[in-house]
Amino acid sequence: MIVVVTGSTGFIGRHLVDALLERGAEVRGLVRPETPRDRRDPRIGHWEADLLDDRSVRESPVWDGATQVFHLAGVTKGRTLDQFRAGNVFPTANVLSAIAARSGRPPRIVLVSSQAAAGPASSADAPVRETDRPLPVEAYGRSKLQAEQAVMRYRDSLPITIVRPSSVYGPGDRDFLNVFKQERHRVAFRAVPRDHALSLVHVEDLVRVLLLAAAQTVAIGRTYFVADAVPVTWGALYDAIDEVVGRTPLGIPLPSLLLRLAARGGDLLSTVTGRTTLVNRNKVALAGPRWWLCDASRAREELGWRAEVPLLDGLRATYNWYVEAHWVKPLKAGSREPEQATTEEPTA
Predict the structure, then answer these.
(1) Is 188 or 92 the better-scoring residue by pLDDT?
(2) Has residue 319 been placed in a domain?
(3) In which domain, by residue range, is 28 found?
(4) Spatial contact of 64 and 30, defined as CB atoms under 8 Å apart
(5) Is residue 276 part of a domain?
(6) Most confident of 68-77, 216-225, 275-284
(7) Which residue in 98, 105, 147, 210 is deepest, having the highest Cβ count within 10 Å?
(8) Residue (of 73, 45, 68) closest to 57 by Cα position
(9) Distance from CA of residue 277 to its chain's centroid?
């Protein structure tokens, strides 16, 4: 089995490479020329290509003999839709065009999209499903939806599966890193209200569904949400992280007006410096909806997939990895705060 992985140096990509190597696959990484050498996994081969240059992608020998392709390469940070399209849409279109141009039996293709492409749920009782009309609320989600649309142009000629993960966490993740950092302080400033809810999936559970989607015929031409069966409120998530970290801070919710003002400032700073700030218009838009919930029953029924990593275990492994990687400093002995009682339970 010869497997091509774009985005092999990213958070999900590294975990996918580990799983593929454990299964004895020959793994090839398609990387941008500017990808630092120290980020390239020495256990796999690397082929360089400019993902924005259709000819560079099409002429790469990385596709020779490939039986599976996982397209994960993309960007999650940006200021404008054009920036997100350059990172998510055009590379996807070029990868699919390159595969379609080759003769012989095409490889199985899995595109890793995002729940953001579909948008949030309308209520706690109506998580979004694959048959719902996509309604992304910001530029990142719109670009991921456009990438899906680019893929579906080849649905009659290539064996393609689209996977839409919910919020993904686990060792190596940076999106939840700042939440962990906030919860380590005596005072935690929280951008998302406690009563907002979200669907989560641990990266190991996501990788298992990616492998199933690439192997099973039923997955061809299908789209799958991926999430734990039971979502959580942000309040329950804060409390679980506090238990793992060993501190119960004073939580202070940030007013929405303050977040919007900070987003404008972040956008202005990004315009001046050319670097995307942590707080910007798109990030604040993602934090606004109350229910980021999706229904993963199709993946469970058709692929036989089940989420196996309990939330507390997954958060503990994530935090331990942060400490070992020196992304956060462990709390000093004796600094643990008294636990505060809570009756908040995961959202059903």
Answers:
(1) 92
(2) no
(3) 2-169+200-229+292-303
(4) no
(5) no
(6) 216-225
(7) 147
(8) 73
(9) 19
